[in-house]
Specification:
Blueprint: H1 4-11, E1 16-17, H2 18-30, E2 39-45, H3 52-62, E3 66-67, H4 78-86, E4 96-103, E5 105-107, E6 116-118, E7 125-127, H5 130-141, H6 153-162, H7 172-193, E8 200-211, E9 216-226, E10 232-234
Parallel strand pairs: 2-3, 2-4, 4-8, 5-8
Antiparallel strand pairs: 1-9, 6-7, 8-9, 9-10
Helix pairs in contact: 2-3
Amino acid sequence: MASFDETLECSFPGALPSREYLRRVRTALAGVGFESSRTLPLVSICRDELTTPFFDQIKAEWGNAFQLAGLGGVPALGWTGWSAALGHIPDRDGRGGLVVFGFPHIGIEEDGEIGVTVRPGQDHPTPTCGALASICERAARGDLPTEVDVDDYEATRLALRLVDPSLPTPDLLELTTLALDALEVDIWRALDRFEVWRDHDVAVWCGVQIHGHADDWIWPRDAWHCRSDGNRRRVPPAG
């Protein structure tokens, strides 16, 4: 079986240690006028405890962050939650800044196995992300939900959104990319609905968070900057 490094390079070419990724984000955004004192970070990551260190690193760079967390990293706060979050953007000095980070996550073990992690206090690997792994297993069994279950709202809604039963069943890596697509759609849908860019500079940075034993890594995919005209300008995504 491949090593962690081999699987990382094969599945996520260009991935960076999370601190290096955030350093590059900070440098890129400083070049277009973002300062932590006038910027609110919003973070859309899975609520899994393994994502906490990356969340803390974002706070260390940008200050206290608003959590958009949902299973698979897809925002789950609805319009009321978005409205609350966007009402927190610094505006004392006029035009504020908003930087939104969006990342589903996945684990790679030291032996190169993808989709699992040996968590602290355990002696066996468990799925990472558990929600996406469960959806993947249900899809493989042909047991996908046909409607949203109010007692399992996020998972069933996410399964219905990510998996088309008329198409080949996605593996976990493909499903993680589909979750990344979905969270980006949701982020921009909210930012456009509230026309945040009219009053604030907006930046959106998305990719995949990858857990290893020594560090977390980030595979950077998309980075955008949006000013008052509402037009999105692509930024080199720190790769």
